[in-house]
Amino acid sequence: MDPVTIVAYIIAIALPFLAVYLIWALDVFGTGKLSTILLCLGWGALGAYSLAYAINNGVIALGASFELLTNLAAPVIEEILKALVLVVLVRQPRFRYIVDGTVYGFAVGIGFALSENLFIYLPRSDSAVLGTAISRTLSTTLMHAAASGLVGLALGRLRRSADRQRTIWPALGIGLAIALHVVYNNMVGRLGGTGLLLVAIGIGLGGSAVIAWQIGQGLADEKRRFAQTLGLNVGVSTGERLAVQQLGGAAIERIFGELGDFFGAERIDQIRRLLVVQANIGILQNNLNSPASPRLRKAWEDEIAAYRREIETIRQSLDASVNLFMNSVFLGEDAAFQEAFNAEIARFDPTLVHTFDMFMRSAELAGTFSPEQLAALAERLSRIEIFKHVSLANLENLSRAIDMQTFAPGFLVFREGDQGDAMYLIEHGEVEITVRDRSGQEKLLRTFGPGDVVGEFSLLDGQPRSASLRARTQCDVLRLQRQVFMRFIQSRPQVVLAMLQYLAEKVRYTTQAVETSIHWLAQIEHGAYPVPAAPVLEPEEDSPVALDPAELSPATAGQVERAFSQAAAALYEREQALRRAAPGGV
Amino acid sequence: MAPAGHLENSPLFRGVDRATREAFVDAMQRRTYAAGEVIFEKDDPGEWLYVIVSGRVQVYIRDDLGHEFTIRYLAAPNTLGEFAILDRKPRSASARAAEPAELLALHRDDLLAFMQQRPLVGLSMMQNLVERVRYTTHYLQQVVDATQELAAGNAAGAVVRAEPADPAGAEIQQLIDAFVRMKRSVQEREQALKGAGDSADAL
After folding, report:
1. Which residues belong to CATH 2.60.120.10 in chain B?
2. How far is Cα A85 from Cα A105, in angstroms, rounded to an integer?
């Protein structure tokens, strides 16, 4: 065997394995496993090839000319045989992704070409020059791969498409494959060296172009399927659309379920995050369309930039197949699809998506205040204890949801026992806080005026009001509703963390107050009244301690201390009086 | 018990679903301490949250003379520093392993990163803290009011109504117990003094 033939053999063997390695390393297939690719390669090289060999010989034995076999019969026989394994694989329940059909087809074609080259062309090419041998090997591989790839793709589209004419796809696929094969076989005998190489490149490029175009079409099919799941009007009858809409939040779960089927459960968390981040970018970009101060705009732009970086990181960790799919189906420029998808994902899990901003936009609340007013409101909010750890930009965003209310004198804003559903900032006028005592008598606790805040803890708590609020005079108040506030914070972990920090401080104040109380209770229990028994601190008669979660502070323990020292003094007095009344008492 | 199970009983993570708790444990560092090894010192910045997996932890302070006072011993499933991680206040006491111990540690930054992925954790924690603040305030108010009623001579009105399902836990129980003991002791003393007076009248 001369060196030329040896090189041709090496190419014939190395090329297919290089191709399979590339398919595997680049992971361009979604659900396929390496074992499936090797199965396809094996079927092409052994099963399809040996059956074709037998049948082709049979055709010759039946009297067909060698010419007829090469130029017509063999292409038909071989393409059908190669396709058999594809039909089986594409019908598997786990087949989900049309690109996989193409990859399977490539593998079958490469396998078939391997045997053809090793057993037919190379043994015959002893005398051929290196160029011809290499061209032949290369072009056979490309032709078989492209032809079977087309068949796999067509079968995949049949499987995934909802199109009524989809049954035409397999016929078209096999037809194209046979045509390609026939053209190739007719030319190959007449060409050598460079010409053959050009044909090989032409087949490779043409096949790739057709396949790329078809994959695009197939992905568009997928997009239509998801659009239908989302209830978008894409060639769906009204009845079908209604049925889908009635599924409600289930739509997004079905989409995530399908994506999990495509790409494996282990990737679904990343894909889910990708979609959520994408949704938030869209929402923030909508925000940028409404007037906002430079500070707020910058915060939004920074957040978008951070999300883009996150997307980049996620993409780098995802395979080419997933990225291709996500780009074509979910991350396109189709505004209606994006909007429907964002709404659906927000309904599915409102803690991940900025539903507050979506709500602001749909309720057309954004724009109630000018950017300057919002900035001023944010400054005011930042002076309220509950917001002290929240950034000004977030407060400015939140301020968009504040509404202005006017109360006539005597108006009952809320009643003791009502659900705590809002916080009020008093702008002008005076309000009074009252409680009913045990006899049902209304008792004034305190009054509030401009700059004061009522009900800040209600934002977090939502428990029934412990007192009533009534306007004493004509009042202008700014109202922030609990529901809107919760919607704001739930997708903003930094704000939740700020709330946790505020609450942790409150817990510490209560802990101090509880420790002080336990200390005093133990003192009184053991009759160890402080001497002198008079309260250390100035007694404030008729000022009962009224503990309010919103007003817990480092001073709370002192307040509690004062109450106990007064009680201790009174108890000491009573015991002294009893002692004096007793015989021999002092 | 698995560490994720521990978190279920933590006052801060009550109500967080199991899958999230497990992911949370994955985000934490596992640390082992030899007996006597210091976990943190008083006045250290509170940047870490610890979950005790095994062993016992001694929480203690030193007085001005350097004498050590044990505040309490903690074992699984307790957590340490759950408030410090939130408000970044310096540690109010020191902690060391009283015996070989295994702890899970979480840094504040990791908590924020985790909350970004699973916002429900933050919201559950918020809910737990809100309830704790509200209940503690409620019971403090009741104990203060009842003590004042007792001081005013209205023993019948001096009651603290405990609700069984109170999420503030041990702290509140201690407070209520202290009140009940105080009330009994005061009443017994007054009864004794009155008895002495009555018997004097009888003479």
Report:
1. 3-117
2. 9
Query: Tokens in use for A71?
Result: 């130029």
Q: Which of B125, B134, B186 sits opposite A524 (nearest CB)?
A: B186
Q: Which range among A216-230, A263-277, B144-158 has the greatest average pLDDT? A: B144-158
C-alpha pair distances (Å), A265 with each of A96, A262, A268: 14, 9, 5
Alpha carbons A226 and A234: distance in angstroms, whole number: 10
A510: nearest CB among B86, B136, B151? B136
CB A382 within 8 A of CB A395: yes
Confidence of residue A235 (pLDDT cuts 50, 70, 90): very low
Strand, helix or coil for residue B104: strand
The pLDDT of B134-149, averaged and rounded, is 90
pLDDT, residue B203, reads 46
Contact list in A for residue B137 (CB cut-off 8 A) is 510, 547-549, 552
A503–B129 CB contact, under 8 Å? yes
Contact A427, A476 (CB under 8 A): yes
Vertex A539 angle, CA A538 and A543, to 5°:
130
The CA-CA-CA angle for residues A513, A519, A524, to 5°, reads: 125
Helix (H) or strand (E) holding A479: strand A475-481
Q: Do A548 and B151 touch (CB under 8 A)?
A: no
Q: Can you say whether residue A550 is alpha, beta or left, with left for phi > 0 and alpha for psi between -120 and 50 degrees?
A: alpha
Q: Is it the case that residue A241 has pLDDT exceeding 50?
A: no
Chain A contact set for B117 (CB, 8 A): 273
Q: What is the mean pLDDT of residues A572-586?
A: 77
Nearest-neighbour CA in chain A from B34: distance (Å): 30
User: Is A567 an interface residue toward B (CB < 8 Å)?
Assistant: yes
CA distance B22 to B6: 10
- Lowest pLDDT segment from A160-164, A383-387, A516-520: A160-164
Evaluate if pTM is beyond 0.90. no
* Chain A residues with CB-CB distance to B120 below 8 A: 351
Q: Where are the alpha helices (DSSP H) in A330-464?
A: 335-348, 355-362, 371-382, 392-399, 458-461
* Domain B3-117 superfamily per CATH: Jelly Rolls (2.60.120.10)
Mean pLDDT computed over A218-236: 68
**Mean pLDDT, residues B9-22 taken together:** 80
**Secondary structure element (H or E) that encloses residue A205, with its range:** helix A193-229
Residue B114 contacts by C-beta under 8 Å, 6 or more apart in sequence? Answer: B23, B24, B27, B121
Give dist(CA A493, CA B114) in Å, integer: 9
Residue B147 has its nearest CB partner, among A503, A505, A567, at A567
Q: How far apart are CA A367 and CA A364, in angstroms?
A: 7
CA distance B110 to B50: 13
CB-nearest partner of B86 from A500, A544, A581: A500
Q: Which two tokens stand for residue A256?
A: 């995530």
Would you state the pLDDT for residue A243? Answer: 47
Residue A463 exposed, middle or buried by CB count within 10 Å (0-12, 13-18, 19+):
middle
Is residue B136's pLDDT more than 50?
Answer: yes
**ipTM for the complex?**
0.87
Number of Cβ within 10 Å of residue B184's Cβ equals: 11
